[in-house]
Amino acid sequence: VSTQSVIEKVLGTLHTEAETEDVDIPFPSRGRSKQLRNSDSGVLVRGAPDILVKLAKCCTPVPGDEIVGFVTRGSGVSVHKDDCHNVASLLAEPERMVDVEWAPTSSSIFLVQIQVEALDRAGLLSDVTRVLSESHVNILSASVSTSSDRLALSRFVFEMGDTTHLDAVLNAVRRIDAVYDVYRVNGG
User: Fold this and answer.
1) Could you tell me which residues come within 8 angstroms of residue 159 by beta carbon, excluding any fewer than 6 positions away?
2) Scanning 5, 130, 165, 187, which has its CA 20 to 30 A from the CA of 19?
3) Are the beta carbons of 49 and 33 closer than 8 angstroms?
């Protein structure tokens, strides 16, 4: 089944049932549910349990965020935070929007990006990475810069399985000496 035929089916269903408020969109099964489950996004598309779902990198949604789904051309459904800067342009094609909901499993992995603001000092980077490691997150990338007034800005991207502990991770980083703020940022 080609992506184009899925989109045509979705568009046809939406146009023929336009007067129905609550429409279940019949996505055909791609016969790949085992493969899709291996890259578990933690999101279900209403009416399409086996459709490929990808979490958007522009806003890196995690459980707890309000989310929207968008049928892409060739890549299944892309899931965005509802306040993502890209959602406004996606709404120009409302027929491609689909209902999605969080359904994380024990194998779901989520990308989280944080920024740490601190007064630069020896050992700061070591302390931050130690706290993240002790919080059982997998650091994928880090960038650090220090301004002339010794403000250290560090950005970390990491994988996290259980995002219910995200606040605890942020609070642990906040307790590091010389750190005065840490917060989650959108991807990109």
Assistant:
1) 109, 110, 111, 112, 137, 138, 140
2) 5
3) yes
